[in-house]
């Protein structure tokens, strides 16, 4: 563990120190022995000129690995400012899927073309591979896959397969899963384990599994991650509609996606627009204007929706004037409704993401959540009643408050499950139904419930 | 893809149909060809008697794989109701880490002992391995690891290493990472790639990497997952304090943890107590009383905290009586504060989980978030001002509302970053600082800000 990350703080302090001097020797010494992921992390925290200076001093292989680990903003800056020849040599080192990812960070099409051209001058086939990957939509299996997999022929013997493995030593990304191809068509898979168990002269056609689990190139990456997690795959082959094997997606890509999707879901659930510039940037790297931009849209929308509460209260102006104590409980009641609704919506959206809830479960979900809300409301209602009586609010108002709690909790849980279910029906991403959105919807409707119950029970309002 | 999960609905319908008849033949036919993960998923949706009937009809290997995939409740029920001999044979098939996980689901110590004794009668060494794993704390690397790794000796040649690989064919969980041991001490690692590249007579001591990255057995599983994701490891060796190699944690365990931790974080962020019975159960499997239990604690706590708003408003009873329109804006102002605070707290907690924020960054974080809040508040304040003027609320009240928006947004963002930072300082898990908690804290304080600004500006209140 000594060489990992415990030292990134030391690296950062050390770098800032030696960067003050124009001498390169101490810089090289400080960087020595650090993992590319750690160098990338510290470079993201440096200012642009320092970061490019560090980048230029790294040897080619390490620079390529660091480039692969950097967030979009820093990578884009380096690509824009490094000499084209060095970029081409760096990209030449990395696998095509990583190059595609890096090149896609560059926003200008012209610059992208220039980089790909540079790579083509050096390694025309690699550049072609990258172009093919870039043709797939971002966020799909096609963009994640690598063509660095072990491919064997069905009539090979186990012994000769081992020799083939050796020829893939530098290239293949995994040896756990081996693929048997006829021409370009995937006809079977076998594991290294199967190969190790086999007799030397056994044919692969006997050893391989023909019942292949494969994914299409346009499968959403979140779905790829879920399949790998559920079925414990170490790699999944990507097969085109004509049966051609295009590449494999490996479990380590899935780990990165899971982390990224987790951030995305958290942002969506908190009503933050999940734009890549903020989503994939480390906390301090995103400029404040971009953070504001990612948050302000939903804030304004929710603000406008929330103004409905003003209209509701204005409508009941007379009641609020006559019993001013009614207003004391407004934040408590809508706050509790918002909390119950938040709990429900997060539970439902998570269950949907894990495919635990299907379309035809809608009624079961609604009944279950409304029932849960009712139970929670009854428990809280009793507490509210006792507390209000102790505070000397009198029986009628205490009754109004506690009945409202019951109704609002049941209602909030209904809204909290109904809205994501509706979104799915309307083909809207349910993860966009954030907790603040549910809270906002519950606020105005909760007030209507409250003031109507008050109207029914309080004599002063008759 | 045909055999995977698309068919779980069909499997469920088919099973429910054939389970009506006491005849076993159609049941066997319906189950044929399904993946254990899919059978487990459907079994969780059946009632207990049906689920054990399905479980008993599966052949040993499939039953073991299904048992490994089931959620705690269903697994516990089966372990409590299946004959001890069959349980012992099932556990005998699974690797020790999976058995430890299954056995730890059983809540009664007596039953646990009975199961381990049954396994010991059949496979004393396996039972011993499981006991050793159970000695590690749940949620640590020690509980996740497997001892099914390829171990080699430093003086072996590359050629003889291949022969050793063959002897591990049935046993090892991965062949990508190979471990070189001297006695029980880990002295080097090498990848299968390195071995494939080597000359047949090269010694492993020449080939292996001596600068080993290892983890201690008590490392938190979330931390294990983060390291694997950051450094793209396929497996990490777990080394005890005396240098003994205890096992490896593989990337596929990490995928499961990431998914589980993701659910846990979502629950915590929504003020749901993340107890295992609800956390790891599929949506419909958790009984409602347990769902209520997981939600009611935080709801009551937040309710009690939120009653502070009643006290604040009661304190300003006179002001609310004199200008009843002040109460119209209460939900709008505290709602907006709550939304801004939710955005901030989720951003901060995510950045903390990814270690993008460190302890000494506290002041930078606070300034950044307060600044963001101020900017957001200014934007929303302008909108609020224009809207309030158009609605004919008059200049003074419009000014009060829009100034409050500015102040509340800046304040909410400050609270939203300060509280998780404080929690970390106090060694409390910052993920427990939920969005509803921040919203609740902002509600009472936001009202104080609002009514004080009103007091300063509105002539009617002087």
Automatic annotation (TrEMBL), chains A, B:
Pfam families, per database record: CBS (PF00571), MgtE (PF01769), MgtE_N (PF03448)
Zinc-finger as UniProt keyword: no
Entry's family note: Belongs to the SLC41A transporter family.
Primary location recorded for the protein, binned into one broad class: membrane
InterPro entries for this protein: CBS_dom, CBS_dom_sf, Mg_transptr_MgtE_intracell_dom, MgtE_N_sf, MgtE_transporter, SLC41_membr_dom, SLC41_membr_dom_sf
Gene Ontology annotations for the cellular component aspect, listed alphabetically: plasma membrane
The species this protein was found in: Armatimonas rosea
Keyword Transmembrane helix belongs to the record: yes
TM ranges: 296-316, 328-349, 370-390, 396-423, 435-458
Function of the molecule: Acts as a magnesium transporter.
Keyword terms of this UniProt record: CBS domain, Cell membrane, Magnesium, Membrane, Metal-binding, Transmembrane, Transmembrane helix, Transport
Subcellular location(s) per record: Cell membrane; Membrane
UniProt protein name: Magnesium transporter MgtE
Assembly description: Homodimer.
Residues annotated as domain CBS: 145-206, 208-264
Membrane topology, from the record: Multi-pass membrane protein
PROSITE patterns reported for this sequence: CBS
NCBIfam families named in the record: mgtE
GO terms of molecular function: magnesium ion transmembrane transporter activity; metal ion binding
Domain of life: Bacteria
